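User: I'm curious whether this sequence folds into something compact or stays loose and floppy. Could you predict its structure so I can see for myself?
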Amino acid sequence: MKYEKQNIFFISDFHIGHKNVIKFDGRPFDNVDEMHVELLKRWNDIITDNDIVYYLGDLAFCRDETTKWFIYSLKGKINYILGNHDRMKDIVKFGRFDNIHEYGTEIFIKDDDNKGARGSDGYQQIIMTHYPILSWNRAHYGSWHLHGHCHGSLMKYNQDYYKRKVMDVGCNVINYTPISYQEVKNIMNKKSISVVDNHGDEEK
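Assistant: Here's the prediction. I'll summarize afterward.
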């Protein structure tokens, strides 16, 4: 998918209805009801109906009216990548999401800063999955990898991994607020392109 505008946002791992995630993540909420209200507020404070959001999995621990109320209260056009706590039939049944990807997807966002980058054609390539991956498409050209699932825990134990152009967009990592393309870009610009396979050598 190619986008000519940069009104793209990213987030994952809300875990609606999951009481224990408040404790596990150290989330600043007294209970799930407070968490739901605050997640909804932080989303709608910055997302408009014309914005595009990529949600990278693990929506809810309940399949009830609370989840339906929550997702239909969210603004924006939402593209969904399934997480380990999601089932395709449940996510499809909600009828809320513009696109649903079972394993991941990649997008290209028009960015004039990339005009001189080899192989970019003036677009920033972003590879998204629920789980972190070690080697992703065109990493040696500066593509980005965004993931969820880890709730920030991998950042503590594999700091070298996050020196590369990769980012955990779990909600507890990004202040429970969708992060914009420009915000991600600012972070990625401080990271290096490093290659863990032979792709950097084979094109010399």
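Summary: The chain has seven helices and ten strands. The radius of gyration is 17 Å.
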